[in-house]
Queue: 4 jobs
Job 1
Amino acid sequence: MQLFYQPELINGINTLDSEESRHAIKVLRRKEGDAIDLVDGHGKFYTAEIRKADFRKCEFEIVSTKEEPKRNGFRHLAIAPTKNLDRTEWLVEKAVEMGVDRISFVLCQNSERTVLKTERLVKKAVSAMKQSLKATLPQIDEMMKLKQFISSCETAEKFIAYVDFDNPVHLKDCLKTEQHSIILIGPEGDFDPSELDFALESGFQKVSLGESRLRTETAGLAAVHLLNLFS
């Protein structure tokens, strides 16, 4: 199934943007009267029929609508972006394919990347959403300072992954079904001890992701996988 994305479907916009129109008409050679499948990023699938096969602004008419099945719980990943932006893009892509509801980026004392533009990351997320046949686009937040982010968290289950091989508490043993869960992943140099202390004082629980020391993006994906097992 080839999905097209139009986030304004809920507002009655029945045209594809220029990029999606070109792909539908020029690449896939869709014609007037052909059926296409769309998602709005808000949890709905649509079947439509092309009314005007214009590669600049393809017009369609909605034939049917279907809701994406609801999941239990809410999966929120907060992570320090990697120095190599390709790794962060890879993480966003794979996390969306696997299943995540929100991705937040945090600026830590040991962060090697201090500036992050999310526009390209959103495009990666849209592509991954369509690739994995999902209809909901995860929320992707602009980067904020770690302590500011921690202070804004009001979720029921709050975890911080920290490289501490003396910590026997694994994330998988702490998660509960049907909960709003958030997991914090630090930068390549991990969290500063003062940041860890602040998180713990703010209600976060220190957890392990296993015996191996993982790259930041690997740790993020491992955490997303575990969140999916309990949602």
Job 2
Amino acid sequence: MKNTELKESLFQALEFGNFKVNNRIAMAPMTRSRTKEGDVPTEIMAKYYEQRSSAGLIITEGAPISIVGRGYSLTPGIYTQEQIEGWKPLTEAVHKKGGKIFIQLWHVGRRSHSSITGVTPLAPSAKKVADKVFGPLKEEGYGMIETEMPKAIRKEEIQSTIADFATAAKAAMEAGFDGVEIHGAHGYLIDQFLRLDSNVRTDEYGGSQENRMRILLEVVNAVVNEIGADKVSIRLSPFVSEGAGGVHDPEIVELTLKVLKELQKLNLAFVHFSENISDYKEVPESFRKEVREVYTNPIMVCGKYTKESGSEIIHKGYADMVAYGQPFITNPDLVTRFKNDFALTELHSESHSTFYGGGEEGFTDYPTYEEMKAEQN
């Protein structure tokens, strides 16, 4: 591949069955906590996503599939009719700009607190690690609070949770989404089931690798049966130990490869690997090669990629799309900037205060490159 072709790799269309995108640059899911009462999406959220519609695919911030699935205050849900109606103007705005958008379906498991949900968090096992989430402060307002001890989820609750994922996927279609991403990463519920330290169950959902991956496959199959495989993806993070108390699972890589062998049969839209964040290990090239031996369908990667490194991993054949997170916060026109080698607006340390909660500041007020030039002139 010539250098020019390498540079263009991010801007090529991708088609896999009925899953089609105009370019291979995705906007990664990022919690921004800007809903209104009832955890309903707002007008400024619609504006925020619309501004970034040039991405080949937008993946929304995590949307809890139920009350008990919540772990962060002010995050938009997908389990009430009011929430569904709140999403509709947002998906319509993205589609009017020619964009595509998947919603991320979220159950946080033990990474929560009853002050957020009103109920005790559920997890594979009643095990807590030091962890903080965004919730109501005792004094007033919102901030980072320590999670609390979860209770072990019962088998009947596992089945209702699987049903909740399927129901949320159906609701996403009603809301106008092009598809869904199941959150199976970052120490949330599905990831908790995968890992030895957080799953010490002795029933069919614990113990062996096959048992620990059971809920993941049951959730994926339930969602596929509800809306079709071409509208379904899943996020995994085998080299990230976020929410795991610093414990790196010795079996997670082997287990992930087994999961991929099963997912290969389903022809999902894509599998999304989250990398290089929080407590992580570098992803070795040997893993990428092993993945491609068992999984030949579309792969998305995310985690501090640049335009150059994103192009390179696509060129090597290890990925088909690259998702960008924080660069999309400050650069709503990230695709245009990449395409034309325009300078990026960098994220400054003070910007972190606007990540969660608030209004338009640090959310919809970042200008495009052309707007910046116009202001300078």
Job 3
Amino acid sequence: MKTLLAATVLMVAPIAAHAACAATDFAIQDVKVSAVGSGIATRLSVKGKLVNNCTSAAAAQVRLDAKDGSGNVLVSKQGWPAGTTNISPGQSVDFDMGRLLHYQSDMQNYSLTVVGVRAW
């Protein structure tokens, strides 16, 4: 019975440590959107900074929604700006999520949201 209890504690401990950070503990700052190039070679650049305000090192998954002028989502993509690297508390990482989207001329507005947190 003690072995089962110890195994359960060891399995749950990483989940408990992970629960200390939430999506609301991350901030997205300094977002700049631009279309680079012209014609068929136009690509989207959506640059920003992801800041970890959590008390422990973790990574965050960000969703980028590209919307038309009426606010309808045309395309949505998710990515991990820091990849599989944890961001230390109080630190930030620069990112460009635009490379995940193919530019469309009716894209008018963009939103970035932290949708997940993980400690690697």
Job 4
Amino acid sequence: MAKFFKLAAAASISLLALSGCSTSTGGDAATGNSNTPADLVKAGQVTLCIDPEYPPLEYYADGSGGDIVGFDADAGRALADHWGVKVKFEVTSFDGLMPGLQTGRCDIILGGLYTSPARLEVADAAPIMNAGPAALAAPALASKLTSKLDLCGRKVAAQAASSNAATVQAMGEECKAAGKGAPIVSEYPKTSDTVLAVLNGKADVLVETNVAAAYMVTQNKGKLEMASQVFDPDTTFGVFTKKDSSMTPAIAAAFKALKEDGSLAEIAKKYDLDPTIVDVK
């Protein structure tokens, strides 16, 4: 994994209110072009549900307000430009992303969500980036974590409603078969809270997506290290749409075009992400 873009944003980025935050692409298009889906929540605008608390994918440029930046945010702007429409970011908490999509607050979720079987039961998804869970701990402990079973019996922090939390919760039987206790999982609403849980001694380990985990390490040098051998990067971030929506093929086609013309690779490099993790089919 490439070294991540160092920014002044602290690990304790504030929890955001459930209000929307609009950002224009800078264009004047109001109706789109021949590639634009006909059933947008608002004509001439693509609306993204997003939780800008997850650098380097989505976060506030000044830490708590202003422009929303990051790979996902800029990919959303590139999508709007491709369709010739404006973009609006509908800000919500992480566990409000899927409800926001289902209730019609937004057209898509572009916000660091795994394409898990449970999510694919209620929504469609097009792949955009390879990902997987990673374990972070204090340096002395991180060097001892070499497999999933090393988390058995330990206090583990993860973001609430995340696939990472579900992954650790599901380890109970595996730990039992190895003669060990299940991980003791604490779920927090913000990723910054999971960092603080480890730093304050409330948890031994935090489990976070590899993309965000590497950024957390850069912001907590000497305090956190990644145990890279604990999990395999075997999952994919997706761009989610409503189940069986006509938006689904339009999203897939749009991001395929943005990958082929190099737009997504350029956005990845802008945030010091390795462009090879961009995965669009």
